[in-house]
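Q: Please design a sequence for this.
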């Protein structure tokens, strides 16, 4: 059952992403050879009447693609036994059309994430968490340091926070058992900073700082809209923080998870529809964000090339762009293999 749910979640996210590229390519008259969910050997495929695109599902469901004419800037389409008109190639479309085709996948992922968060809010109500302390345990490190209910957390390790998700993200980056600098605004408006080492819980063997914030439960259409907006912004912001921490070395490769890690999380979440909806929303937003990173082999890398092309006023050599994208793809696959091995080790 875990495997089935995992494949359904991944399939939905990939389908929504690739459909974004596909629908805009079709809208702008780009010739689309293939629309594929998955990689590797083909399981089945079909064609629609008066539509040259081959729709297919492949064996390995870890991604997908839309094969478009001229997407690599090639004037000649090798391996394709069909004559393509010049105006049907993506590379010959206006800048704004090419840009929209490239970013449409990520935009669809964001839209899916927001819709799922909104549905969650409608069905289960919303939980609004802020940064104001409430009900902090008296045996916790934060209380013992001097913080009290009503104090407002404003910084973690000198980084501004505005949501509880910010607090959790920055504490996660610090790492288990490490000291954290927590700045709070007292009720008299003065700022007090506490350097706190977390305590080890004897019950579940985890470290905790003793942070507890005010929680509000709300229901209704407007509350669900607000929750979807706020949560999307919060998740997107956390992605920036995490990626930034990877580049600065505050987080290592061991903090990343791949398909195996996601599979494990699905196994934990499968007993609750609410958790599965949130997980799907989170992963969809995550994948949308990652695809916009300006790294070769990502959609963001192609967007970067497109912008450079626009600035210099001439097309980039297709061979150069292709080589860079290939190197980027190989590096990405290498990282994926390392992360997958790490995830497998963590299973046992």
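A: Design:
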């Amino acid at each position: 059952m875990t495997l089935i749910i995992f494949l359904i979640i991944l399939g939905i996210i990939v389908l929504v992403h690739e459909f974004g590229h596909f629908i805009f390519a079709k809208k702008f008259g780009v010739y689309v050879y293939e629309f594929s969910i998955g990689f590797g050997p083909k399981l089945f495929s079909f064609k629609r009447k008066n539509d040259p695109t081959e729709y297919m599902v492949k064996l390995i469901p870890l991604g997908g693609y839309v094969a478009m004419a001229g997407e690599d800037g090639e004037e000649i389409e090798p391996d394709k036994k069909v004559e393509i008109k010049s105006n049907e190639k993506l590379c010959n479309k206006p800048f704004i059309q090419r840009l929209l085709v490239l970013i449409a996948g990520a935009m669809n992922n964001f839209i899916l994430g927001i819709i799922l968060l909104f549905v969650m809010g409608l069905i289960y109500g919303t939980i609004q968490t802020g940064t104001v302390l409430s009900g902090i345990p008296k045996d916790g490190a934060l209380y013992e340091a001097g913080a009290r209910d009503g104090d407002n957390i404003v910084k973690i390790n000198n980084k501004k926070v505005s949501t509880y998700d910010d607090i959790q993200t920055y504490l996660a980056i610090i790492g288990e058992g490490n000291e954290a600098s927590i700045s709070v605004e007292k009720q008299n408006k003065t700022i007090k900073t506490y350097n706190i080492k977390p305590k080890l819980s004897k019950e579940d063997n985890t470290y905790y700082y003793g942070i507890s914030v005010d929680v509000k439960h709300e229901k209704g259409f407007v509350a669900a809209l607000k929750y979807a907006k706020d949560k999307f912004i919060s998740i997107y912001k956390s992605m920036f923080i995490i990626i930034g921490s990877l580049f600065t070395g505050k987080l290592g490769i061991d903090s990343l998870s791949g398909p195996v890690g996601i599979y494990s999380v699905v196994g934990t979440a499968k007993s609750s529809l609410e958790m599965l909806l949130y997980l799907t929303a989170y992963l969809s937003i995550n994948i949308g964000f990652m695809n916009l990173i300006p790294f070769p082999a990502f959609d963001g890398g192609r967007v970067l090339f497109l912008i450079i092309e626009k600035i210099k006023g001439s097309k980039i050599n297709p061979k150069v762009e292709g080589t860079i994208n290939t190197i980027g793809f190989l590096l990405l696959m290498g990282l994926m293999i390392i992360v997958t091995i790490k995830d497998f080790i963590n299973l046992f």
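Q: Thanks. Anything notable?
A: DSSP finds nine helices and ten strands in the chain. The mean pLDDT is 86.
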